[in-house]
Amino acid sequence: MPEPLLEMKGISKSFGGNPVLSDVDLGALGIYRGLTLILTGGMPVADVTRDFGVLATGNLLGVVPVPLAILVVVSALVYSNLTPRPLAVRP
């Protein structure tokens, strides 16, 4: 996210008393959509291979859906990073 837009959102939320999901967020969404349309020339990004679709529709070992496997792995990583640990090991 470009820094001037972050600053605009932060200032208006802090000093304007706007709620978390406000017109500022919706306005920024419109700005980002416009920027992506300009950057892509209005064309959808569709130059992906068929192998990319396996992430959404594939199965691991014919049993476990790939999105479920990704969810489990990411959840385990997030849980392990957010679990409190002692800062130092004391003898």
Question: What are the key terms here?
Answer:
mainly alpha, 4 helices, 91 residues, single chain, 2 domains, flat
Tell me what you see in this structure.
With 91 residues, the protein is mainly alpha-helical. It folds into two domains: 3-40, no CATH class; 50-82. Helices cover 58% and strands 4% of the residues. The protein is built from four helices and two strands. It has helices at residues 3-16, 23-40, 54-57, 66-82; strands at 59-60, 64-65. A two-stranded antiparallel sheet has the order 1-2. The mean pLDDT is 77.
In short:
By secondary structure, the chain is mainly alpha-helical. The protein is built from four helices and two strands; from the N terminus they run αααββα.
Distance between the termini: 46 Å
The structural domain count equals 2
Could you tell me the radius of gyration in angstroms? Answer: 21 Å
Q: Tell me about the biggest sheet?
A: 2 strands, antiparallel
Helix tally equals 4
Q: Which structural class is indicated by helix and strand composition?
A: mainly alpha
Shape: flat
* Strand and helix order: HHHEEH
SS elements, strand count? 2
Query: Which strand order do you get reading across the main beta sheet?
Result: 1-2
Helix content: 55-70%
The stretches of 5 or more residues where confidence is low (pLDDT under 50) are none
Mean pLDDT, rounded to whole units?
A: 77
DSSP strand content: under 5%
